[in-house]
Design goal:
The chain is an alpha/beta fold and 683 residues long. Among the domains are: 96 residues, OB fold (Dihydrolipoamide Acetyltransferase, E2P) (Beta Barrel), CATH 2.40.50.140; 158 residues, 3-Layer(aba) Sandwich (Rossmann fold). Helices cover 40% and strands 18% of the residues. The protein is built from 25 helices and 22 strands. The C terminus is likely disordered.
Length: 683
């Protein structure tokens, strides 16, 4: 079944529709209602008054029409039927409405009815001017997601016109529909645009009606097909075969002062097997804060170097890149490996020297920030790309680094994330990746006790900080996240630093924030690492990559302003040594329901996967995915919490269709559901 070329909607309102992503007739037809209004019933004004506080539809003749200027300019229209009269109040109105609602006009109005100072009224009702005896609709009225300048009337008309022009052929074969117990495509779409009066309203609103199930399944299947096809296309590409696990890998393991956990060993076996393939590895390595992802990635780099290739590690911030450089260079350089350091803040002379080492191949491992993807950086023989905190990079940035392979070979790619991705999300948005999970913390990690404390008890918290410092421990004091203003965030951090320095005159209090130059930032971090600074006041620049085992107390101010995953990441900076560690969440009351939920979760668990699961419930998928999904709409109809069973079915069907090479079905389904958007799923 070859896909038909999508038709475009008429020119009228085209640009406004395009802003909503509605460029073709099929886009319009799949622009499904977000809710419905029941305009199929009219009640008398008296009955509507008795049902006050509910949405009702009434019909009457305009008996009075006036513009009032007290307390502000407003249009007051009184309508009456045989049972009584009712005031329609419009705060914002056009001159044309005054004429339209002239005395003697018959009006049908729908809204919640309230009892105001002057009697029963509807404020800003939806209304229609009608003739006496005008028939009522026989289906519910759809209300569509809209944009600026796009009325519901325009959307309804555009969608109705598009439905006359599209090819309604079902993209799924009858046998598959029967096996999956799916309703047919055309009746499902028509029902959702024009639900009959007698429909099960609960199933419609809850999106559990068979018509909604069909839409959700189709959407999930398109996404799974696209990702699986991208995965298959990648396997056709050539990649360096990194077979050697030689002297460097053996010496590296031998010199480590600790033994790899069972989870680390399992993940390392998975990665090593991938690197030996002749097609590019695309693996996501997830592990909770402190689970030991860095050492696994360094062992993967050692395999690349043993096989005669270069490896590159890219991190989103200079602090995190520096942390990796110090740790990995400390392991690798004594074994004779040349490790290059490349960031945007390097002086021109140093940058030129580093890029020369990379280009000549003398630098076997390159660690840095976005500077690695600049055009001036050319690799001699890049075999492995490691991207840390991958969700912080855009699709384009990761692609650029991957495209730096040589001889037409695509380097293997290992992406790391300390924000564990819930299983459903991984199955949905990362179906094209292999996923490895380090689900075990190294022995000797101290448990972290988390407590939520009202801001009013700040003096007690400062006393606790003092006591911990006198015992030889170090403390992080994290300043609140102020998204609207970096300057305000800086001011808060500076003020907090001054307050703590005054309150704790016998301690050294350091300050680190995003506006500091990298060298200044590093100087403060070095002083903290050496215990020359006991209390470090910081903005969220310390969220990832800072490893000071002696720091065992963290205070997070205005914890209610942070997301769950960020609180968990911050908390992971303590508990890295053997001392019992504590995280104090200072909050400003009263707390909203979501903030309360987050703080309760932080108190109840330190398991990153459980936190990620609850975070998905609270926030939805968007922020887990980061820039990976740049330009790609989130799922519009399926819900990852309630529709997990459908995700699994769609995944299995996609696998079967790709495996059996049912290409006409795959092409037709992707053309209908993704149109030109498929490229966003391929990185």
């Amino acid at each position: 079944m070859p896909p038909t070329k999508p038709k475009t909607p008429p020119k009228t309102n085209e640009s406004k529709l395009a802003k909503l992503g509605l460029r073709t007739d099929m886009d319009l037809v799949l622009h499904l209602p977000m809710r419905y209004e029941d305009e199929t019933v009219v009640v008398s004004i008296r009955e509507a008054c008795l049902r006050g506080g509910h949405v009702s539809q009434v019909e009457g003749v305009v008996t009075k029409n006036e513009i009032s200027f007290r307390p502000r300019r407003q249009l007051l229209v009184t309508i009456a039927d045989a049972s009584g009269d009712l005031l329609l109040r419009f705060m914002n109105f056009y001159g044309s409405q005054v004429k339209q609602l002239a005395e003697g006009t018959r009006v049908r109005a729908r809204s919640e009815l309230k009892h105001g100072f002057f009697g029963a009224e509807m404020v800003h009702p939806t209304y229609k001017v009608i003739n006496e005896g005008a028939p009522l609709p026989t289906v519910l009225t759809p209300v569509y997601p809209s944009g600026e300048g796009l009325s519901q009337a325009i959307l309804r008309r555009s969608i109705a016109d598009a439905m006359k022009r599209i090819d309604w052929r079902d993209t799924l074969p009858p046998a598959l529909r029967e096996e999956m117990n799916l309703s047919d495509f055309e009746p499902s779409v028509r029902l959702l645009h024009y639900p009959p009066q007698e429909i099960d309203a609960h199933a419609l609103v809850e999106r559990s009606h068979p018509a909604w199930i069909r839409m959700k399944f189709d959407e999930l299947l398109a996404q799974q097909l696209s990702l699986k096809r991208a995965q298959r296309a990648r396997r056709v590409k050539g990649a360096p075969v990194l077979k050697a696990i030689g002297d460097l890998s053996e010496a590296f393991l031998g010199q480590l002062p600790f033994k790899l956990t069972g989870a680390q060993q399992r993940v390392l076996r998975e990665i090593r097997a991938d690197l030996k393939n002749g097609y590019p590895m695309q693996r996501l390595l997830q592990g909770d804060v402190g689970s030991g992802k860095t050492v696994v990635s360094a062992l993967a780099a050692a395999q690349a170097i043993d096989s005669g290739y270069q490896a590159a590690l890219m991190a989103p911030t200079e602090i995190l890149a520096d942390q990796h450089f110090r740790k990995i260079a400390g392991w690798m350089e004594p074994l004779g490996v040349k490790v290059a350091w490349l960031t945007g803040s390097l002086k021109k002379k140093d940058k030129l020297a580093a890029t020369a080492l990379v280009e000549s191949g003398e630098a076997q491992l390159v660690i840095g920030t976005h500077a690695l993807i600049q055009d001036t950086v050319q690799f001699a023989k890049l075999g492995l790309v490691i991207v840390d905190e991958q969700h912080r990079f855009g699709v384009g940035q990761r692609l650029t680094l991957r495209n730096k392979g040589s001889n037409g070979k695509t380097p293997h790619q290992l992406m790391m994330s300390a924000t564990p991705i819930p299983r459903t999300l991984a199955m949905t948005y990362y179906a094209d990746l292999e996923v490895s999970v380090i689900d075990e913390l190294p022995p000797g990690r101290s448990p972290i006790v988390t407590r939520a404390i009202d801001q009013n008890r700040r003096d007690e918290v400062i006393e606790r900080v003092h006591a911990a410092a006198l015992e030889g421990r170090q403390i992080y004091w994290v300043c609140p996240l102020i998204e609207e203003s970096e300057a305000l965030q800086l001011q808060t951090a500076t003020e907090t630093h001054a307050m703590l320095a005054e309150a704790l005159p016998d301690l050294q209090v350091g300050l680190v924030h995003g506006r500091l130059k990298p060298a200044e930032k590093q100087e403060v971090m070095d002083a903290f690492t050496a215990n020359a600074v006991q209390v470090l006041v910081a903005t969220t620049v310390i969220e990832v990559g800072v490893d000071v085992p002696n720091a065992s107390l963290m205070v997070i101010e205005h914890a209610e302003r942070f997301g769950l995953s960020q609180l968990h990441q911050l908390r992971g900076r303590v508990g890295r040594g053997s001392a019992a560690s504590v995280c104090l969440l200072l909050y400003q009351s009263p707390l909203g329901p979501i903030a309360k939920q987050r703080l309760m979760t932080m108190r109840e668990t330190t398991d990153g996967f459980e936190i990620a699961r609850r975070d998905l419930e609270i926030r939805g998928p968007g922020e887990f995915l980061g820039a990976r999904q740049s330009g790609q709409a989130m799922l519009r109809f399926a819900d990852l919490e309630t529709d997990q069973w459908l995700v699994e079915q769609a995944r299995d069907v996609a696998h079967q269709l790709i495996h059996d090479a049912v290409d006409d079905v795959v092409e037709a389904h992707l053309a209908r559901w993704l149109g030109g958007k498929e490229e966003f799923l391929k990185v």
